[in-house]
Specification:
The chain is of the alpha+beta class and 390 residues long. It has helices at 16-27, 52-60, 64-69, 107-120, 166-169, 240-246, 252-259, 300-316, 324-346, 352-367, 369-374, 377-380, 384-387, and strands at residues 8-12, 31-35, 47-50, 73-74, 77-82, 88-93, 103-106, 124-126, 131-135, 141-144, 149-151, 154-157, 176-188, 196-202, 205-212, 217-225, 237-238, 264-271, 279-280, 283-285. The strands form 4 sheets. It has an 8-stranded mixed beta sheet with strand order 6-5-14-15-16-13-18-17. It has a 6-stranded mixed beta sheet with strand order 8-2-1-12-20-19. A 3-stranded antiparallel beta sheet has the order 3-7-4. β14 (196-202) and β15 (205-212) form a beta hairpin. The chain starts with 7 loop residues before the first strand and ends with a helix.
């Protein structure tokens, strides 16, 4: 049977994945309507790490140089350090990675650029449209909270972990609390901040920090293991004193940054299974709607960008949407498993096992830095714009 190739599409959700997919589809000649439940396209103040595999998609959309002009910081290294005084354990030189350009960006800047790219490709954007039900079929449809219905040959659900479309494609089991919570905050950068991502590792907790906005601000994500859970989602404000109390034993640069936090948000980390089915009768899942990931490999946005490009290519390709999930699922599962493993590595308690692991990291980063970075070649060296060209 010949595959149905999409000539028009509705994309639900104006986040990174949805905007990138809308732009990529329009670039291929698909007439796209993007719908978003919010009144305007905006984003919370937060940082993102755009690794080479995600950056190639942004470059293909013409956004590489504009992103740099908005203050994206070219990353030099990832530094892993001990929590007590910030003693360096290992340093991974990102310049050793093939296709090694790696950027620290403000999420709002990236959202703004992607929205501009989508509109430049004549994507029609409709705000205040909350999708409540998706119905797959020969001509799938979206039902909205106001009672209206929209039909299209392709519906892309890029509406996050609580996707309206996920139940229509795959009946997912409930998510499970991981026993971890995370705080997010922005603080002024201390002078000329080095362009590195610091992972400060402590027993049952860690802090990630890196500069954004031309090095003028520091993005912080602090993760703690605990029994008391918090709601899922980024938008739950918390008292900064709770954050400082949880990380009171952290010294060095991480401790200094935590002392400056004036506003923070807290959210619970939940483990969602990767969808077994991503496509059904003209409806496709993208990004967190298909495969939510924990923030321990900095790949949530990058996997969504890869999804967006591949889905757009498959939608107009000879194999159609049937090729989308096989092209993506195994890679996404590997990235999620690696993120889960990082949580265990970062949170080791003091003792012989932690000392041995840190010694191995230290020796490896000094004696064989190229070998250390080659561990990530499968991740950073993958280029979906080459495997799925225009």
């Amino acid at each position: 049977m010949a595959q149905r190739l999409a000539k028009n599409a509705v994309v639900i959700g104006a986040g990174i994945g949805g905007l990138a997919c809308a732009a990529a589809l329009a670039l291929r000649g698909v007439a796209v309507t993007l719908v978003e439940q919010a009144a305007e396209i905006s984003e919370v103040g937060a940082g993102l790490q755009i690794s080479p595999n995600g950056l190639v998609v942004l470059k293909a959309l013409g956004l590489g140089d504009p992103l740099r002009r908005l203050g994206a910081v070219p990353a030099r290294a990832v530094v892993m350090e001990d929590f007590r005084e910030g003693r360096q354990v290992a340093r991974l030189d990102l310049a050793r990675q093939k296709n090694g350009e790696y950027l620290f960006v403000h999420r709002a800047d990236l959202i703004r650029l992607l929205a501009r790219a989508a509109r430049h490709q004549n994507v029609s954007v409709e705000m205040n449209r909350r999708a409540v039900r998706i119905t797959p079929g020969a001509l799938p449809e979206v039902s909205f909270a106001d009672g209206s219905v929209m039909r299209s040959e392709l519906i892309v659900c890029a509406d996050g972990i609580h996707s309206a479309g996920r139940p229509a494609v795959w009946n997912a089991p409930e998510a499970a609390f991981t026993g971890q919570v995370a705080w997010r905050a922005l603080v002024p950068a201390p002078g000329a901040a080095e362009a590195v991502a610091r992972v400060t590792m402590g027993p049952g907790k860690h802090v990630v920090s890196y500069p954004i906005r031309g090095g003028g601000m520091m993005n912080l994500v602090a993760v703690q293991e605990r029994a008391a859970w918090a709601d899922e989602g980024w938008h739950h404000p918390d008292d900064p004193e709770n954050l400082r109390a949880a990380f009171a034993e952290f010294g060095g640069a991480a401790g200094e940054l935590l002392s400056q936090v004036q506003n923070t948000s807290l959210w619970g980390l939940f483990r969602h299974p990767v969808a077994e089915t991503w496509v059904r009768d003209g409806v496709a899942l993208l990004g967190d709607a298909a495969h939510p990931t924990l923030p321990f490999l900095a790949q949530g946005a990058n996997m969504a960008l890869e999804d967006a490009w591949v889905l757009a290519a498959c939608a107009v390709g000879e194999s159609g949407l049937a090729a989308y999930q096989p092209a993506r699922r195994a890679r996404v599962v590997r990235a999620i498993n690696e993120a889960n493993a990082n949580a265990r590595r970062y949170h080791m308690v003091p003792g012989p096992a932690r000392a041995a692991a840190h010694l191995a990291l230290s020796l490896g980063s000094r004696a064989a830095p190229g070998l250390m970075m080659r561990r990530f070649a499968w991740l950073y060296g993958h280029d979906v714009t080459q495997t799925h060209p225009l």
